[in-house]
Amino acid sequence: MNAVKRKEQKRARATRPNTSFHVICTLFLVLATSPVSLRAQEARFDGHWWRSASYDEQAYFIEGYLDCYAFEFKGPKTLSGHSYDAIQNFISTFYEKNPKDLDKPAAEVLFEISSKPREKRPAVDDGNKPRPHFGNDGDAWSAVGLTREGYVLVVSKTQDRRLGFIEGYLYCHRHDANNRGGTFSKSARDYVRLINKWYRINDEAGEIDEKREGVMIADVLFKFRDREPPAPHPAPPIPDEKKAVPKP
Question: How far does Cα 66 stand from its chain's mean position?
Fold first, then answer.
Protein backbone atom coordinates (compact mmCIF):
# COMPACT_ATOMS: atom_id res chain seq x y z
CA MET A 1 0.00 0.00 0.00
CA ASN A 2 2.80 2.39 0.92
CA ALA A 3 4.54 1.50 -2.33
CA VAL A 4 1.42 2.49 -4.27
CA LYS A 5 1.25 5.85 -2.43
CA ARG A 6 4.91 6.56 -3.16
CA LYS A 7 4.34 5.89 -6.87
CA GLU A 8 1.35 8.25 -6.87
CA GLN A 9 3.41 10.95 -5.12
CA LYS A 10 6.22 10.63 -7.67
CA ARG A 11 3.70 10.79 -10.50
CA ALA A 12 2.15 13.94 -8.99
CA ARG A 13 5.55 15.62 -8.66
CA ALA A 14 6.40 14.75 -12.23
CA THR A 15 3.19 16.34 -13.56
CA ARG A 16 3.28 19.33 -11.19
CA PRO A 17 4.17 22.60 -13.00
CA ASN A 18 7.62 23.96 -12.28
CA THR A 19 6.68 26.99 -10.18
CA SER A 20 10.26 28.28 -9.93
CA PHE A 21 10.65 28.24 -13.69
CA HIS A 22 7.43 30.20 -14.18
CA VAL A 23 8.47 32.74 -11.55
CA ILE A 24 11.82 33.25 -13.26
CA CYS A 25 10.15 33.66 -16.65
CA THR A 26 7.67 36.17 -15.20
CA LEU A 27 10.47 38.21 -13.61
CA PHE A 28 12.37 38.18 -16.89
CA LEU A 29 9.35 39.53 -18.78
CA VAL A 30 8.79 42.24 -16.17
CA LEU A 31 12.42 43.34 -16.33
CA ALA A 32 12.48 43.20 -20.12
CA THR A 33 9.50 45.56 -20.33
CA SER A 34 10.53 47.84 -17.48
CA PRO A 35 11.12 51.55 -18.24
CA VAL A 36 14.86 51.17 -17.68
CA SER A 37 15.12 48.30 -20.15
CA LEU A 38 12.98 50.01 -22.75
CA ARG A 39 15.02 53.19 -22.40
CA ALA A 40 18.17 51.17 -23.02
CA GLN A 41 16.66 49.70 -26.19
CA GLU A 42 15.50 53.01 -27.72
CA ALA A 43 14.83 56.21 -25.83
CA ARG A 44 11.83 58.23 -26.90
CA PHE A 45 13.76 61.49 -26.48
CA ASP A 46 10.79 63.21 -24.93
CA GLY A 47 10.46 65.30 -21.79
CA HIS A 48 11.15 62.36 -19.51
CA TRP A 49 14.41 61.68 -21.31
CA TRP A 50 15.26 65.39 -21.46
CA ARG A 51 15.00 65.70 -17.69
CA SER A 52 17.25 62.69 -17.13
CA ALA A 53 19.90 63.73 -19.68
CA SER A 54 22.92 65.84 -18.75
CA TYR A 55 23.31 69.42 -19.93
CA ASP A 56 25.97 68.35 -22.42
CA GLU A 57 23.87 65.49 -23.84
CA GLN A 58 20.93 67.87 -24.31
CA ALA A 59 23.05 70.51 -26.03
CA TYR A 60 24.65 68.15 -28.51
CA PHE A 61 21.36 66.35 -29.16
CA ILE A 62 20.17 69.67 -30.59
CA GLU A 63 23.31 70.04 -32.71
CA GLY A 64 23.08 66.51 -34.09
CA TYR A 65 19.38 66.83 -34.80
CA LEU A 66 19.75 70.15 -36.63
CA ASP A 67 22.70 68.82 -38.64
CA CYS A 68 20.53 66.03 -40.01
CA TYR A 69 17.44 68.24 -40.37
CA ALA A 70 19.23 70.89 -42.42
CA PHE A 71 21.55 68.81 -44.58
CA GLU A 72 20.11 65.30 -44.86
CA PHE A 73 16.39 65.89 -44.49
CA LYS A 74 16.61 69.46 -45.89
CA GLY A 75 13.66 70.44 -43.73
CA PRO A 76 11.62 73.59 -44.43
CA LYS A 77 11.78 75.03 -40.91
CA THR A 78 14.54 77.36 -39.79
CA LEU A 79 15.83 78.54 -36.45
CA SER A 80 17.74 81.49 -37.82
CA GLY A 81 18.34 84.06 -35.10
CA HIS A 82 18.28 81.61 -32.18
CA SER A 83 21.43 80.29 -30.51
CA TYR A 84 21.89 76.72 -29.36
CA ASP A 85 21.86 77.91 -25.74
CA ALA A 86 18.55 79.68 -26.25
CA ILE A 87 17.03 76.59 -27.87
CA GLN A 88 18.20 74.37 -25.04
CA ASN A 89 16.85 76.74 -22.38
CA PHE A 90 13.56 77.02 -24.25
CA ILE A 91 13.08 73.24 -24.27
CA SER A 92 13.94 72.91 -20.57
CA THR A 93 11.54 75.73 -19.67
CA PHE A 94 8.80 74.24 -21.83
CA TYR A 95 8.88 70.93 -19.95
CA GLU A 96 9.03 72.69 -16.57
CA LYS A 97 5.93 74.76 -17.36
CA ASN A 98 4.06 71.98 -19.18
CA PRO A 99 4.47 68.74 -17.20
CA LYS A 100 1.47 67.28 -19.02
CA ASP A 101 3.48 67.46 -22.25
CA LEU A 102 6.42 65.38 -21.07
CA ASP A 103 5.52 62.74 -23.66
CA LYS A 104 6.12 65.26 -26.45
CA PRO A 105 9.44 64.67 -28.26
CA ALA A 106 12.11 67.30 -27.70
CA ALA A 107 12.57 67.59 -31.46
CA GLU A 108 8.98 68.84 -31.78
CA VAL A 109 9.34 71.30 -28.91
CA LEU A 110 12.55 72.58 -30.45
CA PHE A 111 10.89 74.36 -33.38
CA GLU A 112 8.32 76.14 -31.20
CA ILE A 113 11.04 78.65 -30.33
CA SER A 114 10.56 80.10 -33.82
CA SER A 115 7.57 82.01 -32.42
CA LYS A 116 9.88 83.81 -29.98
CA PRO A 117 11.75 87.05 -30.79
CA ARG A 118 15.14 86.49 -32.36
CA GLU A 119 18.32 87.23 -30.49
CA LYS A 120 20.66 90.08 -31.33
CA ARG A 121 23.81 88.06 -30.68
CA PRO A 122 25.25 85.53 -33.18
CA ALA A 123 22.98 82.54 -33.50
CA VAL A 124 22.68 79.20 -35.28
CA ASP A 125 22.51 80.86 -38.71
CA ASP A 126 24.19 84.26 -39.06
CA GLY A 127 23.01 84.79 -42.63
CA ASN A 128 26.10 83.44 -44.33
CA LYS A 129 26.01 80.23 -46.34
CA PRO A 130 26.88 77.55 -43.76
CA ARG A 131 29.52 74.92 -44.32
CA PRO A 132 28.17 71.45 -45.08
CA HIS A 133 26.83 69.92 -41.87
CA PHE A 134 27.64 73.22 -40.10
CA GLY A 135 31.29 72.18 -40.16
CA ASN A 136 30.70 69.14 -37.93
CA ASP A 137 33.76 67.20 -39.06
CA GLY A 138 36.45 65.15 -37.37
CA ASP A 139 38.11 68.24 -35.99
CA ALA A 140 34.87 69.18 -34.22
CA TRP A 141 34.43 65.60 -33.00
CA SER A 142 37.96 65.63 -31.63
CA ALA A 143 37.57 69.05 -30.01
CA VAL A 144 34.67 67.73 -27.94
CA GLY A 145 37.18 65.36 -26.35
CA LEU A 146 39.34 68.22 -25.17
CA THR A 147 36.88 69.20 -22.45
CA ARG A 148 39.04 69.78 -19.41
CA GLU A 149 38.73 71.31 -15.98
CA GLY A 150 42.22 72.50 -15.26
CA TYR A 151 44.45 69.71 -16.49
CA VAL A 152 41.89 66.96 -15.91
CA LEU A 153 40.10 65.47 -18.91
CA VAL A 154 36.35 65.42 -18.18
CA VAL A 155 35.52 62.06 -19.72
CA SER A 156 31.83 62.18 -18.77
CA LYS A 157 31.29 65.43 -20.68
CA THR A 158 33.14 64.06 -23.69
CA GLN A 159 30.98 60.95 -23.75
CA ASP A 160 27.73 62.85 -23.19
CA ARG A 161 28.44 65.33 -25.97
CA ARG A 162 29.30 62.74 -28.59
CA LEU A 163 26.42 60.55 -27.47
CA GLY A 164 23.97 63.45 -27.63
CA PHE A 165 25.08 64.39 -31.14
CA ILE A 166 24.55 60.87 -32.48
CA GLU A 167 21.24 60.50 -30.64
CA GLY A 168 19.97 63.73 -32.16
CA TYR A 169 21.18 62.90 -35.65
CA LEU A 170 19.70 59.42 -35.62
CA TYR A 171 16.39 60.67 -34.23
CA CYS A 172 16.04 63.02 -37.20
CA HIS A 173 17.22 60.34 -39.62
CA ARG A 174 14.55 57.91 -38.40
CA HIS A 175 11.62 60.22 -37.75
CA ASP A 176 12.09 63.01 -40.31
CA ALA A 177 14.19 61.51 -43.10
CA ASN A 178 12.42 58.12 -42.73
CA ASN A 179 15.71 56.19 -42.78
CA ARG A 180 16.55 57.47 -46.24
CA GLY A 181 19.92 56.08 -47.26
CA GLY A 182 19.98 53.24 -44.76
CA THR A 183 19.01 52.09 -41.28
CA PHE A 184 20.98 52.07 -38.02
CA SER A 185 20.14 49.23 -35.66
CA LYS A 186 23.02 49.59 -33.19
CA SER A 187 22.86 51.80 -30.12
CA ALA A 188 24.08 55.39 -30.25
CA ARG A 189 26.94 54.45 -27.92
CA ASP A 190 28.05 51.77 -30.37
CA TYR A 191 28.20 54.32 -33.17
CA VAL A 192 30.19 56.71 -30.98
CA ARG A 193 32.79 53.99 -30.45
CA LEU A 194 32.89 53.16 -34.15
CA ILE A 195 33.32 56.81 -35.11
CA ASN A 196 36.09 57.26 -32.55
CA LYS A 197 37.87 54.26 -33.99
CA TRP A 198 37.47 55.46 -37.58
CA TYR A 199 38.89 58.90 -36.77
CA ARG A 200 41.63 57.19 -34.72
CA ILE A 201 40.86 59.44 -31.78
CA ASN A 202 43.14 59.62 -28.75
CA ASP A 203 41.41 61.93 -26.29
CA GLU A 204 44.15 61.74 -23.68
CA ALA A 205 46.71 63.00 -26.16
CA GLY A 206 44.25 65.16 -28.12
CA GLU A 207 45.13 63.33 -31.33
CA ILE A 208 43.21 62.45 -34.48
CA ASP A 209 44.23 61.07 -37.86
CA GLU A 210 44.99 64.24 -39.82
CA LYS A 211 44.07 62.53 -43.08
CA ARG A 212 40.56 61.87 -41.79
CA GLU A 213 39.72 64.87 -39.63
CA GLY A 214 38.19 66.80 -42.54
CA VAL A 215 35.51 64.13 -43.13
CA MET A 216 32.08 65.09 -41.81
CA ILE A 217 30.73 63.17 -38.81
CA ALA A 218 27.54 62.33 -40.71
CA ASP A 219 29.55 60.81 -43.57
CA VAL A 220 31.51 58.65 -41.13
CA LEU A 221 28.29 57.58 -39.41
CA PHE A 222 26.86 56.39 -42.71
CA LYS A 223 29.84 54.12 -43.21
CA PHE A 224 28.37 52.01 -40.41
CA ARG A 225 24.75 51.86 -41.55
CA ASP A 226 23.12 48.45 -41.76
CA ARG A 227 24.04 46.45 -44.78
CA GLU A 228 21.12 45.20 -46.82
CA PRO A 229 20.95 41.41 -46.96
CA PRO A 230 22.02 39.97 -50.31
CA ALA A 231 19.20 39.38 -52.73
CA PRO A 232 18.13 35.73 -52.84
CA HIS A 233 19.14 33.74 -55.89
CA PRO A 234 16.26 33.52 -58.33
CA ALA A 235 14.55 30.16 -58.37
CA PRO A 236 15.31 28.07 -61.43
CA PRO A 237 12.57 28.27 -64.06
CA ILE A 238 9.97 25.55 -64.01
CA PRO A 239 10.33 23.52 -67.20
CA ASP A 240 7.39 23.36 -69.52
CA GLU A 241 5.82 19.95 -69.00
CA LYS A 242 4.94 19.65 -72.65
CA LYS A 243 8.52 20.31 -73.72
CA ALA A 244 10.11 18.38 -70.84
CA VAL A 245 8.32 15.11 -71.57
CA PRO A 246 9.85 13.42 -74.61
CA LYS A 247 7.52 12.01 -77.16
CA PRO A 248 7.26 8.20 -77.17
Answer: 14
